[in-house]
């Protein structure tokens, strides 16, 4: 991979990756709907609104691989999710295909499967169970990835990211925490491993409390270094300050499940 495009450069993950991916690939083009405040000298950047195909075509031109972090990263109104994550994701894959990009790593989310209960360990070969419009958009992105992989030959890796950060911040995050350096490993597998056709990995570190079976990622050489248990005491202290959440505490997606929940209302 010579030239990489990373969308979502101004977001939390993108901002961190701008430091961690420095020097990993010869040329990295960063993009977002707005210019990051802390763009470093020498970082190549182009503004693009993912909902506008003409703008997306400009950023994908001439790249070998894409890390697609762009879009709206939490639950939002339908119109916001539709533009940023549904139309935006379609434009990204379609433009990548037209420009003969070889690989796409798609930042999916645990919220594509957030309505699985916490007492069930899940792998990647089961039906999606989104917990939000946001989660639906991530499931849609995974489906698009499969379409472009099997129909058009793009190598696509979907990362169902848990919670990205320096440490797990509560009890739920002890199960789903992703250390930034571990995300870099997963991205590099997606961009470089010779056998990727269409793969789904959980974006999680080596967490003892995990709800996810991430053996598919390990099959491709993933060796996470982060261990959520090292931070258990602090995470549980933070948890003690949160009130109980009878719905969110049952399901993997936590508060995304609680938000707007009214399953007791029969339709
Ligand atoms: C996500 O998908 C979000 O992008 C992030 O902001 C967190 O809410 C994370 O999931 C999580 O589940 O903790």
What is the structure about, briefly put?
By secondary structure, the protein is an alpha/beta fold.
Summarize model confidence as the mean pLDDT: 97
Q: What general outline do the C-alpha atoms trace? A: globular
β-strand amount: 15-25%
Strand runs, count: 9
Distance between the termini: 51 Å
The largest pleated sheet is described as: 7 strands, parallel
Low-confidence stretches: none
Provide a count of the helices.
Answer: 9
Q: What is the helix/strand order?
A: EHEEHEHEHEEHEHEHHH
- The percentage helix is 25-40%
Bound small-molecule species: D-galactaro-1,5-lactone
Task: Give, in spatial order, the strands making up the sheet with the most strands.
Answer: 3-2-1-4-5-6-9
The SS-based structural class is: alpha/beta
Radius of gyration computed on alpha carbons: 18 Å
Descriptors for this entry?
alpha/beta; binds D-galactaro-1,5-lactone; 36% helix; 267 residues; two-stranded parallel sheet; 9 helices; seven-stranded parallel β-sheet
